[in-house]
Amino acid sequence: MSEFPMRIGSVELPSPFAVAPMAGMTDSAFRRLVKRLGGCGLVVTEMVSSEGLVRGIDRTLEYAEYTEEERPISIQIFGGDPEKMAAAAQIVEGMGADIVDVNMGCPVPKIAKHNAGCSLMREPQHAASVIGAMAKAVKIPVTVKMRAGWNDQDRNAPTLAKMVQDAGAAAVAVHGRTAAQSYSGAADWDLVARIADAIRIPVFGSGDCVEPEQIVDKLRAGVEGVLVGRGVLRNPWILAQAEDLAEGRPMRRVSMQERGQFLLDYIELLQHERVDDSRATSHDRWVVNKLRALATYYTKGFENGSHLRTAINTAQSLSEVRELIAGFFFAPVVATADTCSAAL
Ligand SMILES: Cc1cc2nc3c(=O)[nH]c(=O)nc-3n(C[C@H](O)[C@H](O)[C@H](O)COP(=O)(O)O)c2cc1C
Questions:
Q1: Known catalytic residue: 40?
Q2: Positions in the chain short of pLDDT 50
Q3: Looking at ligand 1, which residue's alpha carbon is closest to its atom 28?
Q4: Is the CB of 22 under 6 A from ligand 1?
Q5: Which residue's CA is the closest to the ligand 1 atom numbered 15?
Q6: In DSSP terms, which residues pair with 204 in a beta bridge?
Q7: N or C: which end of the chain has fewer CB within 10 A?
Q8: CA 5 – CA 221 distance, rounded (Å)
Q9: How far apart are CA 312 and CA 318, in angstroms?
Q10: Which H/E stretch holds residue 13?
Q11: Quick one: pLDDT at residue 115?
Q12: 226 secondary structure, DSSP code
């Protein structure tokens, strides 16, 4: 296992397990709730446009907002222009973030075509110059999140990881799939472990951890930290459960009521968020849409979870969503926590 507690530059992480950045999902409310459950060493925002930060666009700034209880907090930015990325890093530093992370993994054409996201992996020299410019511009650690490579012919994460380290990156995270794979196939954790072995800075692995045991196994296989994405959306307790296992305690059990309460608490926090309501017709509608997005993942592994998902997707109001949650999670116990936790 890695040195513990681990550090990224001067930032100490209370646990090597972290919430992966997920656009549309890892908003401040969600991050706060996961943090409160324990076991979470780091949270990362949704990706934020460097262009939008530099131009001071309200909606971009909204994505970068966080609360004190989320610390240590990493703000992930995307972009491909070294000067703009350096200026955006200074803005992130000015906002008080602990870490600024660079997205070199997003395969979505809208991002990749602007010489950002995973397309930076196709130009490693340029990618390293982006990191070099940022590292010179700020005192907080600059980190990089990348994929295994652009495609099977170009699995260059080992080379790029070394290059960004030499350019000043304080840590890297590697999702062990190529951009061409998107989310198909399996994440290549052997590749991630080889990178961790070859470079000095901490390496986080990412991909396919949906059970707490898998998180602990990956850590023991040689990375310094594990980023968990979809597994946290299915089961926000997964990092706390992994920490239990890593520290030799029995893994905590989570009741149906607790799982339901998480969703109600999420609604409550979202209702108090400052958002640009032009994204939806009303604030309540925006909250319903957020719940729909989370329900896609959260309802997996429950008996009749697909029914709940469909019902939330067709619900007409926030009060209807609340009633559906109450009926599913708080009704006289049909599925017990034990029967569903095996599947989660
Ligand atoms: C809905 C969704 C949104 C994502 N958004 C981002 C993002 O904004 N930045 C990023 O670096 N990775 C993003 N990812 C990738 C995840 O951080 C993670 O590397 C990937 O999902 C593999 O890990 P997992 O199997 O634990 O989900 C996203 C993944 C999902 C499922």
A1: no
A2: 1-2, 336-344
A3: 22
A4: yes
A5: 22
A6: 173, 225
A7: N
A8: 17
A9: 9
A10: strand 11-13
A11: 84
A12: E
- Which CB contacts under 8 angstroms, 24+ apart, belong to 216-222? 216/242, 216/245, 216/246, 218/189, 219/1, 219/2, 219/16, 219/17, 219/246, 220/1, 221/189, 221/193, 222/193, 222/196, 222/197
Whole-number Å distance between alpha carbons of 92 and 98: 9
Q: Is the CB of residue 117 below 6 angstroms from any atom belonging to ligand 1? A: no
User: According to the model, what pLDDT value does residue 319 have?
Assistant: 96
- Could you tell me the two tokens for 324? 């559906």
By alpha-carbon position, which residue is closest to atom 13 of ligand 1? 22
The reply to whether ligand 1 has any atom less than 6 angstroms from the CB of 103 is: yes
The answer to whether the CB of 208 is under 6 A from ligand 1 is yes
Asked if 315 contacts 295 with a C-beta cutoff of 8 angstroms, the reply is no
Nearest to 208 by CA among 183, 238, 225, 191: 183
Q: Closest ligand 1 atom, CA of 25? A: 1
Closest CA to 15 of 251, 230, 227, 229: 227
Ligand 1 near 145 CB (within 6 A)? yes
Write the pLDDT tens digit of every residue in 120-159: 999 999 999 999 999 999 999 999 999 999 999 999 999 9
pLDDT of amino acid 291: 97
pTM of this structure: 0.94
Cα 116 to middle of ligand 1, angstroms = 16
CA of 206 to the centre of ligand 1 (A): 9
End-to-end CA distance of the chain: 25
Supply 251's token pair: 């893994």
Closest residue (by CA) to atom 10 of ligand 1? 21
DSSP letter string, 148-209: EESSTT---HHHHHHHHHHHT-SEEEEEEEETTTTT-S---HHHHHHHHHH-SS-EEEES--
Instruction: Calculate how far, in angstroms, residue 22's C-alpha sits from the geometric centre of ligand 1.
Output: 5
Q: Is the CB of 23 under 6 A from ligand 1?
A: yes
Contact 189, 227 (CB under 8 A): no
